[in-house]
Each structure stands twice: as structure tokens, then as C-alpha cells.
């Protein structure tokens, strides 16, 4: 799976929650005010289930979840580490 595939999946998931907004891959969903604490946890659960990665306590940095691009980079790092182990 390529990062473009990951970005596409992430974008498809996110835009369901932000109707009427064309979300760019570098837009900060926290700054835009689209994320509540409940949605943040939902996003973590989505990432774990969709990509088969474990989001650990030290991964719970906003920078990992701010945008489509940030989420893709986070998922790619997690998958690369898992495959190297």
C-alpha cells in the first residue's frame, strides 16, 4: 500500500465528518475546530483498525493527527517499524 492509498483512505474517512468543506491534505483539523476530544479518540480508533497499527501513549501527540499528511506520515512510520521488527 502506498502513502497515496493511505492518504485517500484517511481523506475519505475525515470528509464524512466535515460536510461542505473540501479538506486539503495539509489542513490542520484541530485549528479548523473540527475535532472534539471524542472525535480525537474516534480518530485514534480508526487509525488502529484501518491500518492495523497500535497507537501507544507516546504516539498521542497532536502533531501525529493534525492533517491527512500528518496521519499518513504517522501510519507510514508505524508500519515501517512493525515491518522492520
Automatic annotation (TrEMBL):
Pfam families: PP-binding. Residues 1-79 form the Carrier domain. This is Acyl carrier protein. It comes from Pendulispora rubella.
